[in-house]
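Field: sequence (string)
Field: structure_tokens (string)

Example rows 1 and 2, in order.
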Amino acid sequence: MPRQHYVAAIDQGTTSSRCMVFDRDGNIVSVAQREHRQIFPRPGWVEHDAEEIWRNVRAVLAEATKGLEIAALGVANQRETTVLWDRRTGRPVCNAVVWQDTRTDALVRDLAGHEPLFRGRAGLPPATYFSGPKIRWLLDETPGLRERAERGDVLFGTMDSWLIWNLTGRHVTDVTNASRTLLMDLRSLRWDEELLEAVGVPRAMLPEIRPSSEVYGYFGEIPVSAALGDQQAALFGQTCFSPGETKSTYGSGSFLLMNTGAEPVASHHGLLTTVAYQIGEAPAAYALEGAIAVTGSLVQWLRDNLGLISSAAEIETLAKTVHDNGGCYFVPAFSGLFAPYWRSDARGVIAGLTGYITKGHIARAALEATAFQTREVVDAMNADCGLPLTVLRADGGMTADNLLMQTLADVLAVPVVRPMVAETTCLGAAYAAGLAVGYWPDIAGLRGNWHKAAEWRPQIGQAVREREYRNWKKAVQRTLDWAEP
């Protein structure tokens, strides 16, 4: 009898790298995970060591797949984090600049005059979030680097490109990651010369743009056959294949995506237009996205920087020591505010402090910050699409926090549903990889793998809900105009 074959996926995230192996029913067979360092050279700067991440990925891949027959390997990744490396040595020329990093603030202000071009062609506003300005900053600030990049001796990639380069030797990226650079035309799915000129990035350093699901190369005998930005991978793992289907992923940051079908939908309320996925040579699917910079990483900050808790799981226990926030609101604008504000001048605040406030209230306010930020994105998405949210499909590590899930339902006034496999980022990358090699025949068959694990319904009244949201909005206003040029 032939041995069982499985599909593996790497989820290279902001704080850790994991490898998960799945069977044909989408069940988890094995998991391995390692955290990597967060490097903060200056206020607002966030870096990673790309070589450390590659070592961790090799380790978790070996651990999770040991003794298993792997039919395909997919990659999901933190999206806008920017790696530059030497083509000949394969070594990074500097630390990776993480998506949360705000060092490009002044450069982005200079690009503001091109906003109609960026919005119309790339679907994005000029912001510190995206890869293009990060590339430009590194080229401008590192002597001799631009000349090397123009010769093609220095290569750029987001983490998918960096990992695929190390796994297969090919310099490629997929359409979802390319759509987060400010450099790709959303409709042609190609690097755009006018965008490249506006940002100031040489074409010679960029990877080839490929579909999200195809065989890029081989790691040993294993086909490396999918790459998706982590949020698009989660949308795929939630089987949101039809226009209007929506998911929200709760990790270091949080990201709500709605599938909008075969045509990109322009946002007029602070959301992003992005590529959802492309399977082989089929037309691309698009999405509207609301990006929140700090959610799970706020819990990590309370653990690592303040010592308020000793493990992330303790946040729920601590928050449950009080019945409400005590009038305390925590806006974690550590890297400015993303959707729907796009204000890189914002900085975090804890508002409403009185002598009554305990660490339990601060823990509760930290969890509520995720719910309130989600509400702001949902309001913007409803305005752009005209389709009110009726249920939220939630996934990611934070969904293990039942208090947070109930708070989301209360703040949004809709049911919140968690699937059986909450780590849908890995699952989506596995699905796309398996499709490329025929492990799964088509996306329609994947829907049968989705099963509901838990559901939370609203338990507070409308008056309380709107009062709390109004107070949150007041706290947000206190974060603005803080960082000066």
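Row 2 begins here:
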Amino acid sequence: MTVADVKKSADQRMQKSIETLKADLAKVRTGRAHTGILDHVMVDYYGTPTHIAQVANVTLVDARTIGVQPWEKKMLSVIEKAIRESDLGLNPATVGDMIRVPTPPLTEERRKEMVKLVKSEAEDAKIAVRNIRRDGNESLKKLVKDKVASEDDERRGQDDIQKLTDKFVAEIDKLVSDKEKEVMTV
């Protein structure tokens, strides 16, 4: 392993942390409906836990309503039950062969709770990025110890990894501030 390999590995791992944060932030409810809310809800499809999107067509009916149209009629009640029992606080209703999932408007108190949740997710992502920085720095020290790299290479590598860390922490802060605005918008 070389100094360049350590930097590349740190960059890739930090990028994955950002992608994970984006996925987690997509699950946080805002006042508007979006199909991503139902992404992590699983239904029992012939004994196998399956994502809703794999057994039904999930669309937006209007700004506050998600429409779920199962491909098999007998899945209606199973999907409705799965949505109701999820931790999303949604109350689906079956209308013909479609399930309508209205998203209730968020109260001010609930919006503040959502912002706290967003900040908590961001802090977890920052911790992950800092842990990756620490791992990278330890790898650089090991390279010097094994006489694969010089101390100058180690210092330059640590500076580069710190710049990467700063870049990804700034990106996390931007994602969080955008999501905060989205959540607080009535």
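free_text_note (row 2): The beta strands are 42-45, 48-51, 56-62, 65-70, 93-95, 98-102.
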